[in-house]
Amino acid sequence: MTAKLLLTTLLPLVADLSRELPESERYRRLLEAMRALLPCDAAALLRLDGDWLVPLAVDGLSLDTLGRRFKVSEHPRFDVLLSSPGPTRFPSNCDLPDPYDGLVDGLAEHLEIHDCMGCPLFIDEKPWGLLTLDALDPKRFEPIELDALQAFASLAAATVNVAQRIERLALRVEDEQLKAELYRQAHGTPNKELIGQSKAHKRLLDEIALVGSSDLTVLITGETGVGKELVAQAIHAASPRADKPMVSLNCAALPDTLVESELFGHVRGAFTGAMNDRRGKFELANGGTLFLDEVGELSLTVQAKLLRVLQSGQLQRLGSDQEHRVDVRLIAATNRDLAEEVRSGRYRADFYHRLSVYPLKVPALRERGRDVLLLSGFFLEQNRSRMGLGSLRLSPDAQAALVRYDWPGNVRELEHLIGRSALKALGNCSTRPRILTLTAQDLDLPSREVIETATAPPPPPPAAAGDLRQATEAYQRQLISACLERHTHNWASAARELGLDRANLGRMAKRLGLK
């Protein structure tokens, strides 16, 4: 081996030490350089993980080698290499079975007499893994001095060390960003506590305290706007994981491909726009809680992948074969009837049962009686502070109107109503008051009669003069129109009530002349 060849081979690796490269690319270049320096037919870099060796990069071996896990006690050659303080070359007629038998590219028959050597890698004086080299020519490594492999192993250890340090720095940056985001969420808005004194609300608090102390997966159900995310936060706060992060993801806000990336993370080049490795929500929530809102919107494909993580605690980033183990407590929420979704074939039964280990139903606001006034007081004080008023209060007729109303939008509707009414009432004042009183007229809530008329099912259509198809289309047209009116022409909400995909509803409406 000439000094020029040595220098030409090693200089790019030394330069790589100061470059930001994906871990897989860094290790690929390492093996490429080693094969140029020490010609062989196959090379591998393996990391020691307990009693197992995990391939991180291979060159000249079949791709499926990366998915294998070699138990050291079952592979005596690996055991010998790990027990040695330096490089080891096995005799060409060594009768110890070779772990790569059948895995060398282009070799159909068994890997019998051949040349084989390897070297352990040490990081901080502790065994980290192995470098292995195999050649089909039984005399290939005779001219190679073991010191050359030892020198290369030292450079390989430095490369691994740099890769790990870069990974730790990247994780630290990501963790700090997560902490900053959690701090912003916690301190950027007033603390939204669970307020109420009704029996239904107290039962909910008792269940939160009960399940919070466990590690069970919780499925929170309830109508839109009842405060399912607040319940999830309360469960996390009551758990032993309270000092760890709670990471949230709205499953309805992203398409399937991005949901997978958000949940499981991705590696560089996994898809267009994936410029760097990125951890997913599961890894960010490791040790803490992951809250999946609108879990009923997940596709069957994503459900299957989530099920695997829930069963094994292991995941793979998009575009990667490497598995990551996570310890995450899962809390999910939905306003859908998932049992009915399972019966209709739109939801996986096995995934549903994994989610609903502890089902927790949040009562609707109309079931909580005078809690509506306590919640109103909370929102009134928020708006008083925001608007710079001395006091913001409700008149007796406004309180009565709030208690009478059925609240189809629940607590979220109440919050928006108080904010909107306070702003309008202040705008109607000729001079800025110190005390602003909201009346029933300011709230402008519909009467019970109007509500009942709006929510009543549509009357049956009159007998059609045409055939069955025309009568069916007339009824569909009337049903869809009434549903759109109830949801103020929110097509997504109407589609959910009708049990249709939003795109299918749009196409049907267009065919019926409603668009």
From TrEMBL:
Gene Ontology BP terms: regulation of DNA-templated transcription
Domain Sigma-54 factor interaction: 194-423
A Pfam family: GAF
GO molecular function, one term: ATP binding
Alphabetical list of InterPro entries matching this protein: AAA+_ATPase, AAA_lid_NorR, GAF, GAF-like_dom_sf, Homeodomain-like_sf, HTH_Fis, P-loop_NTPase, Sigma_54_int
Keyword annotations of the record: ATP-binding, DNA-binding, Nucleotide-binding, Transcription, Transcription regulation
NCBIfam families in alphabetical order: PRK05022.1 (NF003451)
Name by which UniProt lists this protein: Transcriptional regulator
Annotated source species: Pseudomonas weihenstephanensis
